[in-house]
Amino acid sequence: MPDIAQQKKEIRNRLRKARVEYAASLPAEISALVFHRPPAAVLDLVPDDAVIGFYRADPGEAPANSYAKFFFERGHTIALPWLVDLQTPMIFRQHTDPYGESDLAKGYFNLMQGSEDAPEVVPDVLFMPLVAFTPHGHRLGQGGGFYDKWLGAHPDTIRFGLAWDMQEVRELPNEWHDMPLTGVITPTRLLGPF
User: Fold this and answer.
1) Looking at residue 168, what DSSP letter applies?
2) pLDDT tens digits, one per residue of 158-172
3) What is the CATH number of domain 4-191?
4) 42, 54, 73, 178: which has the fewest C-beta neighbours closer than 10 Å?
5) Which pLDDT score, from 0 to 100, does residue 194 have?
6) Are 151 and 179 a contacting pair, CB within 8 Å?
7) Pairwise CA distance, residues 79 & 56, whole Å
8) Main-chain dihedrals φ then ψ at residue 168, nearest 5 degrees
9) pLDDT confidence of residue 13
């Protein structure tokens, strides 16, 4: 039987490709509607003064920008991950322009991220990307461990995964450092809070 790292790699390889193909197959009018406004049950968990962390979606990932705009309009401080390299822990920097994205710069892995000059902030609520999820809130990320390490240092953070329904798997191999989610939001349902 393959070890856990190999199992995770195989799931990532399969679902990354399927996720990109699925997202590309969605008609534009459907893509414009999904992940437009967080479900009421999620809003009930977000404190009025919460700093909220998001990600800038890569092709295939569930889009998070409409949620960022929604919370920005409600007066929340918005944050995006900021990466330097594989060894340096991820931090979050303030994102002040979710509409025009004028405050973003190309960073590590060629990901668009906050400017190096943007203030560092610590999210109270985090909306995260994922490759796969289970019905019980386990998440498989990209494999760098950035989110798991950050959440390990900030265990009280409310954390939601954003995903397409097709990313659900029955179970995932888990290791001690894999941090479960508070809930998972898809275009058709909310799983959790767990």
Assistant:
1) B
2) 999 999 999 999 999
3) 3.40.50.10420
4) 73
5) 87
6) yes
7) 10
8) -75, 135
9) 84
